[in-house]
Amino acid sequence: MNFTKDEFMESTHAEIYKMWMNHVKFNGWKIEDKDDENKSNKERRVYIDEIAFL
Q1: Residues 6+ apart with CB under 8 A from 23
Q2: How many angstroms from the chain centroid is the CA of residue 26?
Q3: Are the CB atoms for 1 and 24 separated by under 8 Å?
Q4: In 3-state terms, the chain is what percent helix, strand and coil (to 5)?
Q5: Does residue 44 belong to any structural domain of this protein?
Q6: DSSP helix/strand/coil, 4
Q7: What torsion, rounded to 10 degrees, do the Cα atoms 9, 14, 19, 24 define?
Q8: pLDDT at 32
Q9: What's the pLDDT tens digit per position in 7-46?
Q10: Residue 8 belongs to a domain
Q11: Most buried among 19, 34, 47, 50, by the most CB within 10 A?
Q12: 48 touches 54 (CB < 8 A)
């Protein structure tokens, strides 16, 4: 990626996304599922009512 640190830091989110997608395409990588990035199968919800010391 041919950008200086300053150019990168001044970029918008959309520009950074486009840079990343070009990087992915250039390297021949495949994105399996866009919704799967921040998900974990080990998630467990905790409700404030269930915390005894609060």
Answers
A1: 1
A2: 19
A3: no
A4: 50, 0, 50
A5: no
A6: coil
A7: 130
A8: 72
A9: 888 889 999 899 888 888 999 988 776 665 556 666 677 7
A10: yes
A11: 19
A12: yes
Looking at residue 37, its amino acid is: E
**Domain residue limits at 23:** 1-29
Report the distance separating Cα 21 and Cα 29, nearest Å: 10
- What angle is formed at CA 37 by the lines to CA 46 and CA 44, rounded to 5 degrees? 15
Q: Which amino acid is at 26?
A: F
- Token pair, residue 33, equals 């599922």
**Domains identified in the chain, total number:** 1
Q: How far, in Å, are 19, 20, 46, 52, 54 from residue 27 at the CA level?
A: 12, 11, 40, 50, 50
Asked whether residue 36 is domain-assigned, the answer is no
In a domain, 52, yes or no: no
